[in-house]
Known about the structure:
This protein is an alpha+beta fold. Helix content is about 20%, strand content about 35%.
Amino acid sequence: MAKKIVLVIIGIIILGAAFVFFFRREKSSKLVTTLPTINIPDPVGGGFQIETTIKESQFNFPGRVRLLESESLSPLTEEEAKEVAAGFGFEGEPRSASGKIHGTRYYWSNSDYTLTVYGGTRKVGYSLNYPPFEYVNQNLSNESLINLSRDFIVDNSIYNESEITFSYFTFLERFESAAEGLRSTTKEKADINVANFSPIESEFKILTLDPNASPISVWVAPDGTIIKAEIILIDLSFGNEEHQVKNFQEFKGSLNKSVVISLQEGFISIVDLPKADLEKVVVNEVELAYLADTLVGGKFQPVFLLKGTATVKGIGGEVPILLYLPALKS
């Protein structure tokens, strides 16, 4: 009888241990598969035909990645904005204005350039007041462009040198039929070299809702003049949990969930585009990148940056298109 009681007790212990094990594993699984909401404005709203020429052999991405995380940082106060301005040599009280998106904006200006600090989004904007239209091309090397840009950031006390890592270049040329008169090009043809940095070392680019911009970007003219900079004051780190990236078949199967970010380098407004006018999209390039879609704190997941061509009603020929597609399995 005593032996039976012992066996029953042992059985209960084993069942209890098994329950705890599976409960913890299930809980852990749920934690790993819980993803943050990704916020990508979608004025086009889908409904267009989309296909890809990409082969499975070209789809070389890791099976799992970690999320990028940012602490929820408070808006910059006027005193903190003044500290930023002091790094650029400005003293005294700023002009200010309030807005829904960027919160309170603080302005300083002199005869050469203007500095804007956006309190709500912790963004620092620098721009020359009267940038020359023509520059003497000094044929600066990539290393020189990186060093000039890094020195601008460090010398103006925005980030320390150890806090930033060079990420990638965007090369722009002047073009009338493009948003802001600029379009992407090669370094050889570039009128503006944009050096993009990251506040954390990452295998993949960190993009904002602008696919050509990172959280830290410095615009350098061919002669080395810094003509513009847009810099977010943000702390990033990698989370501990890994999440599954879509495989090739899942990527193809979810293409219809892609969000249009840009048409014809921004010359065609996707906000005003009638939904039926986007007739067909062909994707011929894919890249994995992290999307910092809010820049005010949270967890940021990777997206596929898709490049290709689009057929638009009323416009002859194909035009370039950029799209974002969530990259993680839901």
